[in-house]
Write a structure and sequence with these properties.
- This protein is an alpha/beta fold and 262 residues long.
- Pfam families: HAGH_C, Lactamase_B.
- Pathway: Secondary metabolite metabolism; methylglyoxal degradation; (R)-lactate from methylglyoxal: step 2/2.
């Protein structure tokens, strides 16, 4: 597993397979919460950790990520809610691509990643040399989000230009626990990829132990995530194309129709 010495990131399972996150510097008593769809759970965790939630980072407007904002506001009236889409309820500040903000002693870089939704934001958070990124429904472990409001061209840019430019050591915290199903597709797309095979075996063990599979890292995703491997010959062969955007689009179509064996 990946270890952090300055930052504390706590995954909080929500709904059926969502993740909320509590994030704070270890020397601080102030915290941020990411996509707090079940705010009471997040507040309970903050009390356990002896920190006070002062801000919320919302990746996108879908109800399973932003649907707790009104309740959060009622519980913490002074909270500052950030988002990148006017459809995010209770939003105090709309952020844009490459905007940098400081909250609770943390440096936050806002990355616009439209496709799953047109106003999707990923948040790259830094404390000292440690870097993490909250990717919502843009990047999952070994997968990516559906193209509900965008195109393969946009998702290619999101994954293989914007997020892939982050340091390989950057830890990736996605919005859902989809790891095993994503890895099954990755193994289908690249049956000879031993990194995928090993990660799938590990993920299945974590599932059996009822443990989360987050975080991943940008460096690891480049090895196991077919959507971040569109330039690899093995992935191109799978979809029958060498054009990166076309590969991305065809991969998503294949994933949409993939029915894995148990």
């Amino acid at each position: 597993m990946f270890l952090l010495s300055r930052l504390r990131v706590i995954p909080i399972p929500a709904l059926e397979d969502n993740y909320m996150y509590l994030i704070f510097a270890k020397d601080s008593n102030k915290a941020l919460v990411v996509d707090p769809v079940e705010p009471k759970k997040a507040i309970e965790m903050s009390k356990r950790e002896k920190v006070t939630i002062e801000g919320a980072l919302i990746t996108h407007h879908h109800w399973d990520h932003a649907g707790g904002n009104k309740a959060l506001r009622a519980l913490i009236p002074s909270i500052r809610i950030y988002g990148g889409d006017e459809r995010v309820e209770e939003m105090d500040r709309k952020v844009v691509h490459e905007e940098r903000i400081e909250e609770c002693g943390l440096q936050i870089r806002c990355l616009s990643t439209p496709c799953h939704t047109r106003g999707h934001i990923c948040y790259a958070v830094t404390s000292g040399e440690e870097k993490v990124v909250f990717t919502g429904d843009t990047l999952f472990v070994a997968g990516c989000g559906k193209f509900f409001e965008g195109t393969g061209d946009q998702m290619h840019r999101n994954l293989n230009e914007i997020l892939s430019s982050l340091p390989d050591s950057t830890l990736v915290y996605p919005g859902h626990e989809y790891t095993t199903s994503n890895l099954k597709f990755a193994a289908h797309a690249e049956p000879e990829n031993q990194e995928v095979a090993a990660k799938l075996e590990w993920s299945r063990k974590r599932d059996a132990e009822k443990k989360e599979t987050v975080p991943s890292s940008i460096g690891e995703e480049k090895k196991i995530n077919p959507f971040m491997r569109v330039h690899e010959k093995s992935v191109q062969k799978f979809v029958g194309s060498t054009d990166a955007v076309n590969v991305m689009t065809k991969l998503r179509d294949e994933k949409n129709n993939f029915r894995p064996k148990a």
